[in-house]
Specification:
This protein has 850 residues and is of the alpha+beta class. It has 26 helices and 39 strands. The structure holds ligand ANZ and zinc ion. The site of zinc ion has 8 residues, from loops. Pfam families: Anticodon_1, tRNA-synt_1, tRNA-synt_1_2, tRNA-synt_1g.
C-alpha cells in the first residue's frame, strides 16, 4: 500500500476500471426494483461549473446509494444541445454551431467522467442530433393531428438583442431572461402548442406531487392561475352589440363606473376612430408601470342597474385573458382606482368594511371583503354571499354565465433561429399548410447556412432547404423556416434514456420498466418553465398511448446555489479569487473590497474552476466538500478552508487504513461472527464498544440519507467515526477482527460520497469485487442504541446539574447542551460568562462573574 494518499493515480485508476468493466451500464432486471435517478441535463456551454458539480454529485450519491440498496438504477446523462449560445459563438468566432457544440460536449463529458459520476453513457442523449430531434418532429406532427399544435398570428414578445421571440415565461419583469434587454411586442405568424387544454389537469395533479417542494408547486399553481368568475354581457348603447367582460367580483357590479377593453379587442377599431391613439396604446401593452387610456365616445349599459358607463381602451387590459374586456370598479380595484383618478372618472363605493366606514372620498381602493351597499336588492349581503347571489342572478336572467379562466397561455414554440429543430411543416400555394409525412422524418437541419443573428430565420436563405415539393400535390412549396423552442427538446428527453440508441425512442416495455423518474434533481430556475412543459408532454404522450402514467417526476429536489464572496480592486475591477492574496490585488497590491456572498457568476469572477480544484485536491475531496458544506436544497458557500477540511478528512481516512493495512488484509470477519464477538464488549476506551459504534454510524448515515438526503450530517457522522477510532490500537485477534468489521462497513458508508478512495481502500484491505456492487450495510437497532453517559455541569466549581447525554459528542455539542440546560440557566442568566471549559465530554466547567 502506498504510504501517501495519491488521489491522482487512485482516481484515474478507478475511473478506468469502472469504464473498462462497464459497471454503470444497466439493463432492465425484473428481479429487482428499479430506481430512475435523473439530474437535469446541461447546456453544453463549454465547461462544467461548480453548480453542475453540485447537482451531479447529489445525484450520484443517490444513484450509488440506491444501487447498494439493491435497486436496478438508471442514471443517465445527456446534452441540451440546441440553443442560442452556439449561434452567437458561431457569429463571433466563425465556427459552425455544430462543431462548437460537439467540441464542448467532448470536453464536458471528459470532465464528468473525471468526477467519477456513475452514468450509463450508452444512453447519452444529444438533442441536436437528427436521431433525437426527429422525435421532436414526430411529437409535433401528432400534436398537429390532434389539433394541439396550431398556427396563428399574434403579438409576441420580441427581444431586439437576441433577435428572437420569447415565451411569456422567458420574459421577466419586461426583460429578456437571457440578456435582460427590454422586450418589445411584434406581430408574427407563430406555431403554438395547446398546453391550455391540459390546464385543469396540470393544476389538479399538483396535489399528487407529494415528493415535490411546496415552493415549486405553489409557483406552478400560480402560473396556471385558475380563477373562477362570471362573464357578463354589457349592451353597447346605440349598437346592436354587447361587450362581454370577465370578472371575479360580481359582488361589485353595482360599483361599475366605466368599462375598459384591450387595444387588441375586436371591437377596438370600430369603437375608436383615433387610429394614432390606438397605435400608441398598443405599444404600451405589457408595461405594467404605465396606465394609459382613450375614451371611445361610446357607452355600455350595466345590465343590473341600467346605468350608462363610458367605454375606454386601456393598455393594461390583456387581450389573451378572460374576454379581453373588463368592467371597472375603481372603489374596489386599485388599478381601476388609479385609472379613474388619472382621468377624473367617478368612484362609487359598493362594499363597506364590516367594522368601520371608508373615508370620503376614499384614498385607495378597498379590495377586502365586506358588506354590500348601494347595490339594490343585494345590499346587506356580505361580499362572499353576494358573489354567489349576483352570479346566480346573472345566469338566471341570461345576462351571462359562470366561467373559469386560466392565466396559463398556449406555448409559442416558433423561433427565428438556426440552431434548433426544424418545424416539420410545408406551405403549398394550392394545399396550404401541409405536415411533413412521418416517413420523411427527420427534416434535417442543413449545415450550410450563413448566420447573422438578426431577424428572420437563416433557413430562409438556404434554397435546398427552403424550396421543396408539396407532399400532397407535388407542386412547388416552401418549408417552414422557424425552428422549435429548445424547451421542446427537454420536455421528453427523460423518456429517450429508457431505450438504447439503436432501439425505438418509445420502447413500451422499457418505458414501463423505468418510468417515471423516481428522483429528479435540478435548479429552482426551472420551477415553472421546464417542469411544466415536461408535465404537459407527459400527459400528451400518455394520451397518445405511449406513456402509461400521468406524471414524469415522482420526487423533485431543487438544489441550492453555489455561492461565494466577490473581490474588487479599484484598479483592476472584479478579481478571481486566485488574484487576491492577503486581501490585496496581486497585480497592483492595492487592498481589495470584499463583496457579499452571492451566486457564483462569471461577471463578478467569484468562481472557482472545478478542473483546478480536482487537480489540486482530487475529485473525492471536491465531492465531499460540496456535499458536506450544506444540505442539498440550501445555498452553499464556497470556502477554501472547507475544501482543505474535506481534503484533510480523506487524508486522515487514508492514514487510518495505512496504519493498519498490514494486518487488515489478512483478517476476515462476517456479520454473525462480529455479533458473537461484539457481546464480549471489547472496547476502545472501555466505555464505547466498537461494534455498537459502527452500528450507530450505519444507522445515522442511513437515516440521514433516507430522510431528505441530508448528506451533510451523514458525512459529519463519518468524520465522527474516524475521530473516535483514529488512535485505537486493537491488541488481540478478536479486537482486530471487530475493528476490521467496523472499518469495512465504514468504507461502504463512505463509498457513495467519495467513491474512488473507498474503492481503493476496499481492495487494500483484501476485499474482492467493486465496492459499488456491495450491498448497503444494515444495522441492528439494539446495537445501534445510543450509549448514554452522565454530563456533570459545574458553575464556579459547584456541581449545579447532571444531564444524561449520548456519548461521543463533540466538545462543542456538549457545551451547547450544558448552556441550554434549565437548571444551569437559572445560575447563569443575566451573568457574564467568563469561561466555559469542557472536559472529555463528561464535565463542563462554567465560570461566571460575581
Ligand atoms: C371587476 C372587478 C372588481 C375586478 C374588483 C376585480 C376587483 P384574476 O383573479 O387574476 O382572474 N380582468 C379580467 N380580465 C382582464 C384582462 N383581460 N386584463 C386585465 N384585467 C382583467 O383577475 C380577474 C380580475 O381581473 C377581473 O375581475 C377583472 O377585474 C380583471 F373590485 O372585474 B375584476
Ligand atoms: Zn400542395
Amino acid at each position: 500500500m502506498n504510504q501517501n494518499y495519491d488521489f491522482k493515480s487512485v482516481e484515474a485508476k478507478w475511473q478506468n476500471e469502472w469504464l473498462k468493466n462497464r459497471v454503470f451500464e444497466v439493463n432492465e432486471d425484473t428481479s429487482k426494483k428499479k430506481f430512475y435517478c435523473l439530474e437535469m441535463f446541461p447546456y453544453p456551454s463549454g465547461r462544467i461549473h461548480m453548480g453542475h458539480v453540485r447537482n451531479y454529485a447529489i445525484g450520484d450519491v443517490i444513484a450509488r446509494y440506491k444501487r447498494m440498496k439493491g435497486f436496478s438504477v438508471l442514471h443517465p446523462m445527456g446534452w441540451d444541445a440546441f440553443g442560442l449560445p452556439a449561434e452567437n459563438a458561431a457569429i463571433k468566432h466563425g465556427v459552425h454551431p455544430a462543431k462548437w457544440t460537439y467540441e464542448n460536449i467532448d470536453h464536458m463529458k471528459s470532465q464528468l467522467i473525471k468526477l467519477g459520476l456513475s452514468y450509463d453513457w450508452r444512453r447519452e442523449v444529444t438533442t441536436c442530433s437528427p436521431e433525437y430531434y426527429r422525435w421532436n418532429q414526430w411529437i409535433f406532427l401528432k400534436l398537429y393531428e390532434k389539433g394541439l399544435a396550431y398556427r396563428k398570428s399574434s403579438f409576441v414578445n420580441w427581444c431586439p438583442s437576441c433577435a428572437t421571440v420569447l415565451a411569456n415565461e422567458q420574459v421577466i419583469d419586461g426583460a429578456c431572461w437571457r440578456c435582460e434587454s427590454q422586450v418589445e411586442q411584434k406581430e408574427l405568424e407563430q406555431w403554438f402548442l395547446r398546453i391550455t387544454a391540459y390546464a385543469e389537469e396540470l393544476l389538479k395533479d399538483c396535489d399528487r406531487l407529494t415528493g415535490w417542494p411546496e415552493k415549486v408547486l405553489t409557483m406552478q399553481r400560480n402560473w396556471i392561475g385558475k380563477s373562477e368568475g362570471v362573464e357578463v354581457d354589457f349592451p353597447i348603447d346605440g349598437m346592436n352589440e354587447a361587450l362581454r367582460i370577465f370578472t371575479t367580483r360580481p359582488d361589485t357590479i353595482f360599483g361599475v363606473t366605466f368599462m375598459c377593453i384591450s387595444p387588441e379587442h375586436p371591437l377596438a377599431e370600430r369603437l375608436c376612430e383615433d387610429r394614432e391613439a390606438l397605435k400608441r396604446i398598443r405599444k404600451l401593452q405589457r408595461e405594467p408601470e404605465i396606465k394609459e387610456g382613450i375614451f371611445t365616445g361610446k357607452y355600455a349599459i350595466n345590465p343590473l342597474n341600467g346605468e350608462k358607463v363610458p367605454i375606454w381602451i386601456a393598455n393594461f387590459v390583456l387581450i389573451e385573458y378572460g374576454t379581453g374586456a373588463i368592467m371597472s370598479v375603481p372603489a374596489h380595484d386599485q388599478r381601476d382606482f388609479e385609472f379613474a383618478v388619472r382621468y377624473g372618472l367617478p368612484i362609487k363605493v359598493v362594499i363597506k368594511p364590516f367594522e368601520k366606514d371608508l373615508p370620503v372620498p376614499i384614498k385607495e381602493a378597498y379590495e377586502e371583503e365586506g358588506v354590500m351597499v348601494n347595490s339594490g336588492a343585494f345590499s346587506g349581503l356580505t361580499s362572499r354571499e353576494g358573489k354567489k347571489a349576483v352570479a346566480d342572478y346573472i345566469e338566471e336572467k341570461g345576462l351571462g354565465k359562470k366561467t373559469v379562466n386560466y392565466r396559463l397561455r398556449d406555448w409559442g414554440i416558433s423561433r427565428q433561429r438556426y440552431w434548433g429543430t426544424p418545424i416539420p411543416i410545408i406551405y403549398c400555394n394550392h394545399c396550404g399548410i401541409v405536415p411533413v409525412p412521418e416517413k420523411d422524418l427527420p427534416v434535417i437541419l442543413p449545415e450550410n447556412v450563413s448566420l447573422t443573428g438578426k431577424g428572420e430565420s437563416p433557413l430562409k436563405y438556404v434554397d435546398e432547404f427552403y424550396r421543396t415539393k408539396c407532399p400532397l400535390c407535388g407542386g412547388d412549396a416552401r418549408r417552414e423556416t422557424d425552428t422549435m423552442d429548445t424547451f421542446v427538446d427537454s420536455s421528453w428527453y427523460f423518456v429517450r434514456y429508457c431505450s438504447l440508441h439503436d432501439e425505438e425512442a418509445f420502447h413500451r416495455e422499457k418505458i414501463k420498466y423505468w418510468m417515471p423518474v423516481d428522483q429528479y434533481i435540478g435548479g429552482i430556475e426551472h420551477a415553472v418553465l421546464h417542469l411544466l412543459y415536461a408535465r404537459f408532454f407527459t400527459k400528451v404522450l400518455r394520451d397518445l398511448g405511449i406513456l402509461p402514467f400521468d406524471e414524469p417526476f415522482e420526487r423533485l429536489l431543487t438544489q441550492g446555489m453555489v455561492c461565494m464572496e466577490s473581490y474588487r480592486c479599484l484598479e483592476h475591477d472584479w478579481l478571481f479569487p486566485k488574484e487576491v492574496k492577503d486581501g490585496r490585488c496581486i497585480h497592483c497590491g492595492k487592498p481589495v473590497q470584499t463583496g457579499r456572498v452571492e451566486k457564483m457568476s462569471k461577471s463578478k469572477k467569484n468562481i472557482v474552476d472545478p478542473d483546478e480544484m480536482i487537480e489540486t485536491y482530487g475529485t473525492d475531496t471536491v465531492r465531499v466538500f460540496t456535499l458536506f458544506a450544506a444540505p442539498p436544497e440550501k445555498d452553499l458557500e464556497w470556502s477554501s478552508q472547507g475544501v482543505e477540511g474535506a481534503h484533510r478528512f480523506l487524508k486522515r481516512v487514508y492514514a487510518l487504513f495505512y496504519k493498519h493495512h498490514g494486518w487488515l488484509k489478512n483478517t476476515s470477519i462476517d456479520d454473525s461472527e462480529a455479533r458473537s464477538l461484539g457481546v464480549l464488549s471489547i472496547g476502545m476506551t472501555g466505555e464505547s464498544n466498537i461494534l455498537s459504534l459502527i452500528h450507530r454510524t450505519i444507522k445515522r448515515v442511513t437515516l440521514d440519507i433516507e430522510k431528505e438526503y441530508q448528506f451533510n450530517t451523514a458525512i459529519a457522522r463519518l468524520m465522527e467515526f474516524v475521530n473516535e477510532v483514529y488512535s485505537y490500537e486493537p491488541k488481540t485477534d478478536e479486537e482486530r477482527k471487530l475493528f476490521k468489521f467496523a472499518l469495512k462497513n465504514f468504507l461502504l458508508l463512505l463509498s457513495p460520497f467519495a467513491p474512488h478512495i473507498a474503492e481503493e481502500l476496499w481492495h487494500e484491505i483484501g476485499e474482492q469485487g467493486f465496492i459499488l456492487n456491495e450491498p448497503w450495510p444494515s444495522y441492528d437497532e439494539e446495537l445501534a442504541k445510543e450509549q448514554m453517559i452522565e454530563l456533570v455541569v459545574q458553575i464556579n466549581g459547584k456541581v449545579r446539574s447532571k444531564i444524561m447525554i449520548p456519548q461521543g459528542l463533540s466538545d462543542e455539542d456538549v457545551v451547547k447542551i450544558a448552556l441550554d440546560d434549565e437548571k444551569v440557566k437559572q445560575w447563569i442568566d443575566g451573568k457574564e460568562i467568563l469561561k466555559v471549559i469542557p472536559v472529555k465530554g463528561k464535565l463542563v466547567n462554567i465560570v461566571v462573574k460575581g
